[in-house]
Amino acid sequence: VLAPQLIISFGAGMIMPFLNIFFKSGFDLHISKLGFFMALMPLAMAAGGLIGPWLVTRIGRVRAMITFQSLSIPFLATMGFSGLILPTVMAAFLRTMLMNASWPVYSVFMLSHFPASQHQAASALFTAGWNLSSALSARLSGRLQMDFGFTLPFLITITCYSAATLLLSRRFLKEDNKKAVTQTAIKEELE
User: Fold this and answer.
1) What is the pLDDT of residue 178?
2) Which pLDDT tens digit goes with each residue over 17-50?
3) Helix axes 19-27, 31-59, angle to 10 degrees
4) What stretch of H or E contains 20?
5) Could you write out the DSSP letters of every residue in 60-119?
6) pLDDT by residue (tens digit) across 122-179?
7) Cα 136 to Cα 141: distance, rounded to the nearest angstrom
8) What is the rounded CA–CA span in Å between residue 42 and residue 90?
9) Which residue, 78, 93, 91, 87, is CA-closest to 41?
């Protein structure tokens, strides 16, 4: 149950820690514009966190995660390869929103695979795994950027997101009860 998100973490670590460098070097932005664009990303995270539960109530957890992750991939490709500032910023905002819509849904989904007595350990293991995977890929990405610019890191990230979404689909879609999660079920999980 941890593998799909650890693959996502590896992919995200290739690009997300370097997003400001990508914008600055790729578009020769003045620092004030860069600050404005980077300030949009936490807003995207907040918006994503709010839309996740909405979709879960309509199509279920696994389908919602697959939807968010699948929709983020074209925006990731647009970020890396459009070469135009406005589409790149919009794509970065939408990718960030979609991936952060998936995050709280995945947290509940992941914990549902462990007994309540193991939730703290499972959460700690997941957090440690996420950070280690991201750190490893950020280190690798820095080296790749020196040799290839951002092209190869973006391709690796797209591949990781695609592989993680496919793995999530193949491994867990059949578990999804094909029913939307009811508001009552969400309230019970929050208690």
Assistant:
1) 53
2) 999 999 999 998 889 999 999 999 999 999 999 9
3) 130
4) helix 19-27
5) -HHHHHHHHHHHHHHHHHHHHH---HHHHHHHHHHHHHHHHHHHHHHHHHHHTTS-GGGH
6) 999 999 999 999 999 999 999 999 999 999 999 999 999 999 999 999 999 887 765 5
7) 9
8) 14
9) 93
pTM given for the model: 0.88
Tokens linked to 63:
């389908």
Is the pLDDT at 57 greater than 60? The verdict is: yes
Give me the sign of the Cα torsion angle 161, 120, 114, 180: negative
CA distance 81 to 179: 37
**CA-based Rg of the chain, rounded to a whole angstrom?**
17
The span from the CA of 119 to the CA of 32, in Å, is 43
Short-list 92, 95, 73, CA closest to 155: 73
Q: How far apart are CA 9 and CA 32, in angstroms?
A: 29
